[in-house]
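User: My advisor, Dr. K., asked me to get a structural model of this assembly before our group meeting. I'm new to this, so sorry if the format is off. These are the inputs:
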Amino acid sequence: MSAADPSMTLRRGSRLGTALLRFHFDGRTYSAQEGDTVASALLANGVCAMGRSMKSRRLRGPLSAGLEEPGALLTVGDAPALVPNIPATQLRVREGLVLRSQNRWPSLHWDLASVLQLGGGLFSAGFYYKTFLWPSWRTYEPLIRRLAGLGAAPGRSDLPRVGAEHLACDVLVAGAGAAGLAAALAAARGGARVVLCERDPACGGELDFEGGQIDGLDPRAWLQRCLTELAERGVRVLPDTTLMGGSGGRLVAMAAPDGMPGPGAVYHIRPRAFVVATGSVERPIAFVNNDLPGVMLMGAAERYLARYGAAAGRELVLFANHDRQYATALRLQAAGLRVRALVDPRPLDHLEADPAVRAQRAQLQQGGTECLVAHALVEARGGRRVHAACVQPLSGGAADSGRSRSIPCDAILVSGGWSPEVHAGLHEGGVHSFTEPMKAFGAAAQPAWRQLAGACNGQLELAAVLADGHKAGEQAARAVGAMAPCGAAPLAAGDAPPRLVPYWRSPAPQSREKHQYVDLQNDVTVADLRQALAEGLYDIEHVKRYTTLGMGTDQGRTSAVLGAAIFAELKGETLPAVGISRTRPPYHPMPMAAIAGLRTGVAFRVARRTPLHAWHAAHGGVLDPMGLWMRPRYYRANGPDAFVAAVAEARCVRATGGIVDASTLGKIEVAGPAAAAFLDALYLSKASTLRVGRGKYMLNLREDGMALDDGLVLRLADDRFLATTSSGHGEHMLSHFEHYRDTEFAGAALSLTDVTDAWAVIGVAGPRSRAALQAVLETPARETLATLGHMGFLTTDYQGRDLRVLRAGFSGELAYELHCRPDAAAALWAALHAQGLEPYGIDALDILRVEKGYLTSSEITGQTTPLDLGLEAMVALGNPCVGRALLERPAFHEATRPRLVGLRAADGQARFLAGAQLASADSPNRPCGYVTSAVYSPTLEQWVGLALVARSLATLGTLLTARDPLRHGDTRVQVCSPVHVDPAGERIRS
Amino acid sequence: MTTAPPLPSCRLDALPADSVQELIAHAPLPPTAPWPPQPGALVRDPGGMPQVLHFAPGRWLLTGAAAGAGADVAAEADYARRVDVTGKWQAYALTGAGAATLLANTLSPEAVLLGRQCAAVSLFDCPCVLARIEAGFAIWVQASYAAHLRQLCQSLGAQDTAPGADALAADFYL
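Assistant: The format is fine. Below is the predicted structure of the whole assembly, which you can bring to the meeting.
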């Protein structure tokens, strides 16, 4: 809560309330008013220096009044949960806010590292490529890294989790300045659903201080009327919301209430039409010491005054290359500030050509303001802030240093023109194009759904801005079919055209160019640009990377055009020829938390649960994510770690029996008269030969003949099949099936349904499995079970719920798969457990499978054919399925193709691991294959594995070396049959 | 991590899904077919709850009474197949002033349901069928994804009254 301070004189500004707030900056407490930004509050408190620069650690004050601020960046909060690089110009004061300046030690005004400024060119462009080489860069790296960077990285984040909002609209208008408001109004009147987002907390942009009239009203009054109408027409206005970027028709905007990222939402907006009305950014002019605190953009000073009643200084000098400075000076004077001088580099005849300017100049001169025409401000003088401006007359573009003089002042307001904010107009293939009136770069032709309007479209006069906005809004409405009348464009008269004359930097001796700052965030100077050119960097993109021009949090918003223009001058080319570096999203730094949104912690990705998940969790199952599924690897009761437990579980299955949760198997029901033909086309063996009540192990091929997936296919009825897939492939196989249904089988009487979640699957395996199952089932299923043959299944029920019992399994044992409805799974599982069947996890299942030589995803890798996998018998059936023809390719029959083999340690004891590379004695350094799976077999009491080995070496008894230098070293292994246990299949058929 | 800013209140209640079938057409529907022919259309029971949902082209979700009695499977066989998917879907009602705001975290319900009453969607990466009901939305989510969906809804402030809500919440914030 704020406490009013009766001794404090309240400032008046369009964004200020009357409540008083206190905040802390570098340990001192300051007062502010409700609505103040930190920059405006500090300026009002007489504080001008707010930070230090990154490389040369020079003191910096606010250059701007918005998001484009390069210098006044603050750290919010305390370590470790601090937030660095928040522009003081955007951050609004909250009661008790704790702030620190950056890039200084021990304090802002006494910074040890700033002594490096004495080194002058020590930190010139590319210094880290050329300096600190002796004895080694590593010697200096720790210190450089401590000095480098903007602010300190947070150790942790306590930002609130950032929510997201997906919203759709007919027309999105980005920017609620004059053009954006006119566009939103026109589109809403036309009947479109409009969303208007504005990065500032309030709409209106420069209407806060713009002179003139709109529709016969003061611009402030028109703004209020406009906002009322927008609300009445249901326009959704998103203040404090910055458009960050977008693609594929979706635009991402982030809300940062109070200028602080985090508490707001990230908006995913899908508009049918998009109006970019993001305005323009004022750019500075380079002169010596133009980075001193107290040097500020002219428009920023007007904003601080109009919105917050805060003055950039009391004694001002203005320096600009356009007419707007005269109107600005009059407004500043009217607010009680003393404008000591106007410095205009343009020739007198240019000024005299406009009677309005002539009159303004005369008015200023009468008020005691010196108007210096054809002059340049060549240097700012001062220490912790500006105390004088040094001016010189210009003659033929050169300064007359002999007639230099100093004008005392505490602020220099500078303006070199405006650069369109076309970031949003460059997405999805947009390109820059030079716009002559602004001497800057706009965006070239836009797609039909996106239009630029206002200052970002090259318009600088209020009337033209409003007309352009209205036109864009009307066109957007029409484009989405909103055909109601849009009304007339607002009629306006505002400041005169600026009559901008390009002027990028004041004359200076080459030795002082290192103090002419181009990019205030990265300490890039004119000297750096000259050096880059001298070292052969001719492309502006290369110059950017070499000098860091335009990098950082402000992304060169105030420096990119200025830097390109000065580089063009140094290079002797025109600005359009040099071009400008490309911008990329995001427009402004986003917290990682905002990008992550809800996808953090456990919610990082989907975790699918089987119907038995709760049972596993309650009974010591160690649940791990496998693909999207949570599956029990092992049960804690069976051992202290995964290895011991899994071996014990596998041993138990072979000795007595066990149950495993196989609900994750993909299941696709294929139904219809064409079902059998369809499956015949997609599997290497025929489904049509299956009898109802029988199942079959089958393999899919890709179109190129590689194995795709394997599983069982059951024939449920004449025209109905159930195809199971491996656990991680359910969705992919469904998609594969759907592709062929929609293409090769288009129009066939065929339906595909994913029934994975409709059936829980319990694997029951081991010598006692039949007896246990008989104890659980009721007659007649109990009797049928006794005669159920391998791959046969019966359909019954359990406690009134559907149950399918299939005699098959993937453990090499007498085994059954129980397909039951999910709500009956827990009861059925518990009943089997009560019969003495212990649960086993995925690790044990792997052991059982590898012992038996069954394929897993380690062997079906997308690079193996059925021939590689030893499935020649299946190929020999000759079913002309997808991919079958390509199995005849000669390359698939060469001796270098891999072949699935079994492996055991040559000494019967040693351990080897999956992933080990296999080498022969003839070629010890050249792999001839690799181990795909390896487990400790409790049945054989040794390590066994599967491997893919070159066919020429795949003969039984071949000795190879399993090379595993990073984990286990070399192991001598011997090729054997992949079926390590029960090669005759007696256990399965028992 | 601190929690997200509070949303307007909403609650998640379980709906019965004892008997659910999917009907998949493989031929144009005859005029006599009792199913809403337009994708996105649905038929409600007398209580206003969706009973037959044409949630994707040629796919209907049949719930409650529509999934059971009176099915003329033989007549359907000419143009469709019916699959019993009981257990595949879990059904919930997301209601209250904050329901739409909660869903807007993952999609724009307004846009998705523009001109239709139901749709197959992905909510927080979970495959779902979404339909409007009087007080909010009915959601059918594939059963293996249901816990994840509920945890996300809980974390966004939905009051979860369905069975097992406390256990899910505890699991989520571990």
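One thing worth pointing out at the meeting: Residues 462-479 of chain A form the longest helix (18 residues).

User: Perfect, thanks a lot.
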